Amino acid sequence: MARSLPETLTEAVRATVWERDQEAWNTPRPPVEPPARDEPRAVHLMRGRFEAHFEDVEAARAAARDARAVGFVVDVEQEGARWLAVGRRALAFPDDERARYASRLQAIATQHGGSFSGFVEEPHDAA
């Protein structure tokens, strides 16, 4: 049975594409250099405490529970007639995370009727 012209052309095109692909796969290539990137930025890790003051011990304890639920280690201490909730991260954290953590503690303190005092950086322990 004779093949029609379109079938013959289709087979010829397939053979040509196959040969081209085989040649392309087997052609040696120069090594590819990775794209140039900016120098890696050093990450400064920090430790410190986030402080919030409360008039009521129960409010301070409730805020401490909420802060613990989002990853803080929190102690509640009496400071004169007021109560101080001191929150810390368990591990040192990048300095660019400080504002986010402070914002979270400020929201928790406000929710429980307290006032966020701020962040106090602490030195790293010598290992």
Throw out a few tags for this protein:
127 residues; alpha+beta; Alpha-Beta Plaits; 5-stranded antiparallel beta sheet; 5 strands; 39% helix; 28% strand
Care to describe what's here?
This protein is of the alpha+beta class and 127 residues long. The protein has a domain at 45-122: Ribosomal protein S10 (Alpha-Beta Plaits), CATH 3.30.70. It has helices spanning 5-26, 57-69, 98-111, and strands spanning 45-54, 72-79, 82-89, 93-94, 115-122. Strands 1, 2, 3, 4 and 5 form a 5-stranded antiparallel beta sheet that branches. The longest helix has 22 residues, at 5-26.
Strand content: 25-35%
CA distance, first residue to last residue: 86 Å
Number of strands: 5
Helix proportion of residues, in percent? 25-40%
Architecture of the domain at 45-122, CATH level 2?
2-Layer Sandwich
| CATH 4th-level superfamily of the domain at 45-122 | Ribosomal protein S10
Rg value: 32 Å
Helix and strand composition category: alpha+beta
Q: Which fold name corresponds to the CATH topology of the domain at 45-122?
A: Alpha-Beta Plaits
SSE sequence, one letter per element: HEHEEEHE
Number of continuous helical runs:
3
Low-pLDDT parts are: none
- In CATH's first tier, which class of the domain at 45-122 applies? Alpha Beta
